[in-house]
Design brief:
single chain, about 300 residues, alpha/beta, eight-stranded parallel sheet, 13 helices, 8 strands, about 40% helix, globular, disordered C terminus, binds 3-hydroxy-3-methylglutaryl-coenzyme A, binds magnesium ion
């Protein structure tokens, strides 16, 4: 019998990580509607926007209007990405109570993503963490490219563990270990996580898998076996992978919840409501639903079913 946590906290990243990778830009009221529907389905932690440069990520422009206009549910955490102090200022002005800083374990990816190297990014994030702490804002951390990088290839596990520990030491309450390109496999995932756990407690780690190579659920199971109890995912598998044409992006929340509930692990999420939200957002975006569970439920739109 495999030992796994009794409860798992899902961090829904569709409204940010998902939408930022979609080709079109969703209307602001649809972005708010998506977040509210996700909260209605029982998700208690939702990444709702991003205070980055709109020139870099146009899909996340107007995140202030999204976060200000939301009907907030009691107890639900709405997070927004902040790459620097300017992002934190904008987030604070929009009433955000939790932000996320996003480092990488790959020097090349860090340069491409935020226009600076890993160590410089960590200096920026230290300033963000300090200012956030003073403002009573919680900070989550990310380490991208933990299983490989589209530009530099292999990424040393020691670097993943180092960057994770630095983010925790700055005051991040949790760090999400991201397989940004979805190339990781379960044994590798366990090696990376074990390396991180030599410096950082499992309770301060989350996992963030992309399903590009169909490994995401297996990788999540591998993480659960190490007592990791926080999983990022995206409704309908929103978000593509710019490095593999036609490939899926973030693992779909519906598929993760189906697996967890099937294993007797509680999430507090109403799977049926989540499936409906997955179909709804796919219709809005005119895109395929990448959730296998969503498709199997047979409740999609005529357009989805014929595609
Ligand atoms: P830069 O061009 O080096 O910045 O960008 P800069 O300081 O030279 O400023 C250039 C311009 O951007 C200036 O405006 C600044 O005011 C403005 P101008 O004077 O030219 O009009 N600017 C800003 N505007 C709005 N909000 C801000 C901000 N900061 C500066 N916060 C920067 C540096 C970090 C801003 C840029 O590279 C950027 O926005 N990058 C974000 C890219 C991004 O969001 N990538 C996706 C994140 S997803 C990820 O990392 C992976 C993850 O999802 C996990 C996974 O999937 O594995 C987390
Ligand atoms: Mg992602």
């Amino acid at each position: 019998m495999i030992s796994t946590p009794d409860n798992v906290r899902i961090v829904e990243v569709g409204p940010r990580d998902g939408l930022q990778n979609e080709p079109g830009t969703l209307r602001i009221d649809d972005r708010m509607d998506l977040i509210e529907r996700l909260a209605d389905s029982g998700l208690m932690h939702i990444e709702a926007g991003s205070f980055v440069s709109p020139r870099w990520i146009p899909q996340m422009a107007d995140s202030d209007r999204v976060l200000q206009g939301l009907k907030r549910r009691h107890g639900v955490r709405y997070t927004a990405l902040t790459p620097n102090l300017e992002g934190l200022r904008r987030a604070r002005d929009a009433g955000v109570r939790e932000v996320a800083v996003f480092a990488a374990a790959s020097e090349a990816f860090s340069q491409k993503n935020i226009n600076c190297g890993i160590d410089e990014s960590l200096q920026r994030f230290a300033a963000v963490c300090e200012a956030a702490q003073q403002a009573g804002i919680a900070v989550r951390g990310y380490v991208s490219c933990a299983m490989g990088c589209p530009y530099q290839g292999p990424v040393p596990t020691t670097e993943v563990a180092r960057v994770t520990a630095v983010l925790i030491s700055m005051g991040c309450y949790e760090v999400s270990i991201g397989d940004t390109i979805g190339t990781g496999t379960p044994r590798q995932v366990q090696q990376v996580l074990e390396r991180c756990m030599a410096k950082t407690d499992a309770s301060q780690l989350a996992v963030h898998f992309h399903d590009t190579y169909g490994q995401a659920l297996a990788n999540i199971l591998a993480a659960l076996q190490l007592d990791i109890a926080t999983v990022d995912s995206s409704v309908a598998g929103l978000g593509g992978c710019p490095y593999a044409e036609g490939a899926s992006g973030n693992v779909s929340t519906e598929d993760v919840v189906y697996m967890l509930h099937g294993m007797g692990i509680e999430t507090g999420i109403d799977l049926e409501a989540l499936i409906q939200t997955g179909h709804w957002i796919c219709e809005r975006l005119q895109r395929h639903n990448l959730s296998r569970v969503g498709l199997a439920s047979g409740a999609g739109t005529a357009e989805e079913e014929s595609s």
